[in-house]
Amino acid sequence: MMEKVLLKQTDTLRQALMRIDSNALGIAFVVDEDGCLVGVLTDGDIRRGLLGGASLEAEVAQVMTRGGKFLELGASRDEALAALNDRIRIVPIVDEKKRPVDFVSMRRLHRIPVAEPDLRGNELNYVTQCLRDGWISSQGAFVRQFETGLAKLVGAPYALATSNGTTALHLALDALGIGPGDEVIVPDLTFAATINAVIYVGATPVLVDVERQTWNMDPIALAAAITERTKAIIVVHLYGMPARMTEVMEITRRHGLRVIEDAAEALGAIYRGHPIGSMGDLAAFSFFGNKLITTGEGGMLVGRDPEVIQRARVLRDHGMDPKKRYWHDVVGYNYRMTNVQAAIGVAQLERVGEFIDRKKAIATHYIRRLEGIPGFIMPPECEGLDNVYWLFSIIIGEDSGVSRDHVMEGLARAGIEARPLFYPMHRMPPYLPYAKERVFPISDWLADNGLSLPSSVGITDAEIDYICDFLHHMVEVRRMVASHCEIS
Fold first, then answer.
1. Alpha helix (H) ranges present in 414-460?
2. How far apart are CA 338 and CA 140, in angstroms?
3. Sign of torsion, CA 26 32 35 38?
4. What is the CATH number of the domain that holds 442?
5. Fewer beta carbons within 10 angstroms: which end of the chain, N or C?
6. Are residues 187 and 203 in the same domain?
7. Is 138:337 a contact under the CB 8 Å cutoff?
8. Are residue 229 and residue 128 in the same domain, yes or no?
9. Which domain holds residue 304?
C-alpha cells in the first residue's frame, strides 16, 4: 500500500494526480532523494496549483505543503488519536530515519461496518431469564412469544420459528409437497439459499431475470418460464424492496401455482398496504446477525393454511407425531429455534418500529447526499412499494467515471466496509444447469455495478456524511484525472 501514497519532490503534478486517484485517499506523502518525509500533497494542492497557472509537468515541490505532522514508529493509539482531527485525517508514520513506513487515519482506528446488530434493548435480561429458569433449548416460552409477535407484525395467522431462514424455505417447499419432477421458478439475482432450498427437496429450479425498476423477479420473465411441470415460485424481496406482488399473484393464480415469499431481507416492508410475507401461501424470514432484527441465527415460516403449517411443524421436529412421542410417520429434520435465540428475538421485536424508522432515515440521508453524483443510481423506489432498505444499495453507473470495484477499494482504505451485490445464480458452478439458454441482462448489470454501503441502525449521521464526502471526493478526483488525460 505504501507505494501508492508516496511521491518524490521531482515527480510531476500529472504523476501525483494519478497516484492520488489510485490510492483514493486524497493525499500522498512527499519524500526526498533519500526517501525521507519532507511534506504532503493533496488533491486540493494540485487543484489550487493548476488554477494558479502551474503546468501538469510542474514538479510536486512547487505546490506541496512542507513539513506537517507525523508519528514515530511504535506510537500508541492515544498518540495517533491526538494527531488526528477534522482537518488532519491522515498522518504518516516514519522510522528512525524519518522514512514513511505506514500511516494512520481515523477510519483505520474506527472501521464502519456494512451491518451490525443493535442489542441495547432487553436482550441480556431475557437471555438471563432463560439461563436462570433453565429453559435454553427449543421448549421455552420465548419461542411461542416470538412466533406470536412475528405473526402479528407480518399479518399472518400462523408462524413457526426455525433454526435459520434457509431451513424455513426448505420446510415451506417440503410442506407444500414440492419434490422430484416439479419445477420451481426463482429469480437469478438472490442469495444462494433461495435456489438451494429447491435443490434440497429434489425439485428443479428455473432461473428468470429480474427487472430494473425493483431489482426483483420480472413478471414477464416469470410468465414466460411457466411449464406444465411448474408447481411453485419463490419470489424474493431483494435488499428490502417489495417485488411486484400484484402481477406475480395474478400470474400464479392463473396457473394454479404456489407462491413462497423469500422475505429474509424485507421484514417491515409494505406492498400497497400489505406487509411483506402476508400475500403468498407461505413466507420465510431470516434473523441472521445482519438482518433488521436478529437472533444470531434463526428464521421464521409464516402462512395462512393451518394444515400446511402443521405439516411444516412436524417436519421441523424430526417428523415426530405430536401426539405420540418418539413415533415418526415421516422423515423430518431438526430445524428448531432455541429459547435463548427466541429471547433475543422477542427483545428485538420490541424495537422493530424504531429499527424500521432508522433504516428509512438512513436511506433518506444517503439519497439526499448522493443523488447529485452523476452516474450514481439510488435504490429502487416505486409508488405503493415501501422499501425497508435492509442494506442501502446503489448502482455505480458508467456516467460516474468510476467503477464499482474502484469505489469499493477506496472505501476499504478509508475504513469503510462495502459489499458487492449478490452474484447471479447463473454464473456460479452449482447452478449453471438451471440457466438453460436464457439470458439475464438486468441481473448481470446489477451484479456488476451494485454495492451496499454501511447501513446498520447504529450508524451515525456523521458517519454517513463521512462516507458521502468520501464518495464525492473520489468521483471529483477521477474526473480531474480524466480531464487532464484528455488534455495530454
1. 441-449
2. 8
3. negative
4. 3.90.1150.10
5. C
6. yes
7. yes
8. yes
9. 123-349
**DSSP calls for 322-334:** TTSTT-BSS---B
* CB-CB contact of 257 with 228 (8 Å): no
pLDDT in tens, the chain (488 residues): 688 899 999 999 988 988 988 888 888 999 999 999 999 998 888 889 888 888 889 999 999 889 888 999 888 888 887 888 767 888 999 999 999 999 888 777 778 999 999 999 999 999 999 999 998 888 889 999 999 999 999 999 999 999 999 999 999 999 999 999 999 999 999 999 999 999 999 999 999 999 999 999 999 999 999 999 999 999 999 999 999 999 999 999 999 999 999 999 999 999 999 999 999 999 999 999 999 999 999 999 999 999 999 999 999 999 999 989 999 999 999 999 999 999 999 999 999 999 999 999 999 999 999 998 999 999 999 999 999 999 999 999 998 999 999 999 999 988 899 999 999 999 999 999 999 889 999 999 999 999 999 999 999 999 999 899 999 988 988 888 877 654 34
The residue among 333, 414, 353 whose CA lies nearest residue 171 is 333
CATH of residue 100's domain is: 3.10.580.10
Domain boundary among 76, 109, 142: 109
Same domain, 389 and 337: no
Q: Is residue 115 part of a domain?
A: no
Least Cα distance to 243 among 281, 195, 202, 210 occurs for 210
- Contacts of residue 294, defined as CB under 8 A and 6 or more positions apart, other chains included, come to 117, 287, 288, 344, 345, 348
Q: Which residue has the cell 447501513?
A: 455
Last residue within a domain, chosen from 56, 76, 109: 109
pTM value is 0.89
Query: Where would I find the H helices in 265-422?
Result: 306-316, 339-349, 352-370, 404-413
